[in-house]
Amino acid sequence: MSLAETAHSQTPPAWLALDRLGVLVAIIAAGGLALPFALFRANRIVPGDALGLFAALPMPLALVLLTALVGGFAAALLRWPAAIKLGMGLVVLAVLFVLVGLSASHLTPEGDSFARVSPGAGFWVLAFAFAVLVTDALTRLALRPWQRIVMLLAVTFAMALLLWSGLWTDLSMLKEYANRAQSFWSEARTHLGLAFGSVALATLVGVPLGLVCYKVKSLRASVLSVLNIIQTIPSIALFGLLIAPLAWVGAHVPGAKTIGISGIGATPALLALFAYSLLPIVANTVVGLLGVSPAAIDAARGMGMTRWQRLRAVELPLAFPVILTGIRIVLVQNIGLTTIAALVGGGGFGVFVFQGIGQTAMDLVLLGAVPTVALAFAAAVVLDALVDMTARETRT
Amino acid sequence: MIEIDDVSRLYDGRAVVDQVTLTIQPRTVCVIVGTSGSGKTTLLRMINKLVNPSSGSLRIDGEDIAGIPAYELRRRIGYAIQGHGLFPHRTVAQNIATVPGLLGWDKAKTQTRVDELLELFQLDPVSFRDRLPHQLSGGEQQRVGVARALAARPNILLMDEPYGALDPVIRAKAQDDLLAIQRKLGTTIVLVTHDMEEAIHLGDTIAVMAHGKLLQSAPPAEIIARPASDFVANLIGSSERPFRLLSLSRVGDHVEPGTASGTPVDVTASLRDAYAELLWSARTALPVTRDGQVIGQVTLAALARLAARPQ
To answer: Does any domain span residue A174?
Structure first.
């Protein structure tokens, strides 16, 4: 018997071959299945009871979840096409999300407004496992940039539908929301304003600064090392360090107070976020410009473009994808960092996180943390797609 | 006419171009040849002020270029470089339209010119106009690079190792196309190369440079027959001399009466090709054809005479 035949006789058929990442997903998911699916508490701060799948859900619904999970395990473990893995992963996630809401309605006694039901560790682990499966399938499908944005829009729409339908109304996170609906949206506006505003400011300052560093070699090393040092200051310290000087400016510079400059509040938060954003934007601008093909620059000079024409028509457009990558890095970073702004009275989703920690109300922490993570994720997807779209046009 | 008059360029006190004087006649091809570090590219780049001379002067059609703003001068002179230097984010048409755009040509005129040039370089305007450079082959990119350099009908075209990145087959074709276009448009071409073969093939004049100095400037036949120094002779390659000499003439100029047998050779072929065919087929004479009609023969004896060192 030849070697090839031996190998053949010992290999299982192609459709039965195991997927390595899928095995990991399945192990994690199996762990999730063993953990409690939901937590029930008599009120928002007492320790709760952990409930398994069959205790948390009426029997028929538990069976629905188990059926979906069997399909999910198969899609994860076997080497099926990525599109099927993606579809099954999304189905499992959808079932999980709908059922956790139904579980809350099932567990909350009629008319009891103090009882709290929140997703248990089992739910989070299962959701994580199948999110990994979905992400892996998306990577394998190598979707075009606009297809990724469409996927994001579809998921956002599905989540909005889920929230609007009232399926989740009995979940404790949504009960925390119901108590704070108004401040939630105003903090959301503050959060977005701080994150996007600081990135916009940093882009307005950082790109020209990067340009100067690119043109003036002697300046490059010193500017970049100063920005590097700023980047190493711990974020809480930087927010705190700005209080004293800004309070002084607010008190002594005429007109500063009227435009909102003071030791605490949004100004120090915005300044700190701005300072953190500068290094990646300046550095990426310099690197992007240095990466422009020397032949293209020589040709531009040789054909009689002036310095500004060269910059506008050749250097900046060719460096753009790298500059945009810098903006993507700081936008995602700042959406997360803005949570800390609440510590200096800057507002944003951090307000709920720190209130929640103070009251040991984890659901309140989640009310601040989950939208932050979702925003950062969405910003990353959109900007990655934009970077890919622009890079496609400028490659040599 | 380009007059380079006692021009030097110093970098840190070292002369990269050292007192070069060279006159390039209008409507001719001048090839500057030399090893790397000979200063040939620096000399070329002084013609469109990409490098300014430390001393000496350059005149174009009698006008000193020191008095012309650099960007204005460059828009009047075509410039094509190794690795084509196309703008990767712009289409073929946009690339070619660069200088017309800088000169403020209107849209219709520019578009007509772009299509005209694409046709001149045997690239179908409809299918090439909107492609990006990375969607072209190396040879196509190079042709677009030269088309772009010629867009605003410059009288002078500077080329810095334009064929360095091409494989030999495409390079030979590109060289022949360039000569045909030069004959048609009457452009003065200054081309830099390190390849003596290319210099002999393309140049009406060859200027040999080493260590910043111009060693010799003469027509190819004279460079081959009477190299000014051992360095020039070495660059030509002593064992190559007879063949290089033969490569300069066409069969058509040396047809003798008589009839030979076997595969014929066309009048447009070089004597070198005819010689190779004679040796390979072990014949002493080849029939010569023009438009398919036999008009005479070319003989081994005659070629041997022509390949000998001219007196």
So the answer is: no
Summarised one tens digit per residue, pLDDT across range B229-238 is 999 988 888 7
What per-residue confidence (pLDDT) applies to A1? 44
A238 versus A289: which is more confidently predicted? A289
CB contact under 8 A, A299 and B74: no
What is the C-alpha separation between A161 and A158, in angstroms, rounded?
5
Q: Are A133 and A231 part of one and the same domain?
A: no
- For residues A130 and A242, state if they share a domain: no
For residue B134, give the chain A residue with the closest CA. A396
Domain end: A103, A137, A164, which one? A164
B209 forms bridges with which residues in the sheet? B34, B214
Looking at this predicted complex, what is its ipTM?
0.85
**Taking the model in full, what pTM does it have?**
0.81
What lies within 8 Å, CB to CB, of A274 at 6+ separation is A198, A201, A202, A205
Instruction: Compute the distance between CA of residue A284 and CA of residue A282 in angstroms, rounded to an integer.
Output: 6
Domain of residue A218, residue span: 181-395
CATH of the domain at A261: 1.10.3720.10
- What's the rounded Cα separation, in Å, for the pair B141 and A48? 70
Residues 6+ apart with CB under 8 A from B258: B285, B296, B297, B299
- Per residue in B123-164, pLDDT (tens digit) is 999 999 999 999 999 889 999 999 999 999 999 999 999 888
What sign does the CA torsion over A298, A303, A306, A312 have? Answer: negative
Residues A155 and A302 in one domain: no
Provide DSSP, A76-105: HHB---HHHHHHHHHHHHHHHHHHHHHHHH
Query: Which residues of B fall within a CB distance of 8 Å from A315?
Result: none
Residue from A301, A303, A310 whose CB has the most chain B CBs within 10 Å, to mutate: A303
Task: Specify whether the CB–CB gap between B181 and B120 falls below 8 A.
Answer: yes
Query: Cβ contact (<8 Å) for B85 and A293?
Result: yes
Q: Inspect the interface and report whether the beta carbons of B83 and A295 lie closer than 8 Å.
A: yes
Query: What's the whole-number average pLDDT of chain B?
Result: 92
Verify whether the Cβ–Cβ distance B84 to A396 is below 8 Å: no
Report the gap between the CA of B204 and the closest CA in chain A (Å).
Answer: 24
**Strand residue runs (E) in B123-187:** 156-160
Interface check A392 vs B, CB under 8 A: no
HSE toward the beta carbon, residue B220, CA cutoff 13 A: 24
Q: Mind telling me how many Å the CA of B135 is from chain A's nearest CA?
A: 10
- Average pLDDT of B250-272? 88
Per-residue pLDDT at A187 exceeds 60: yes
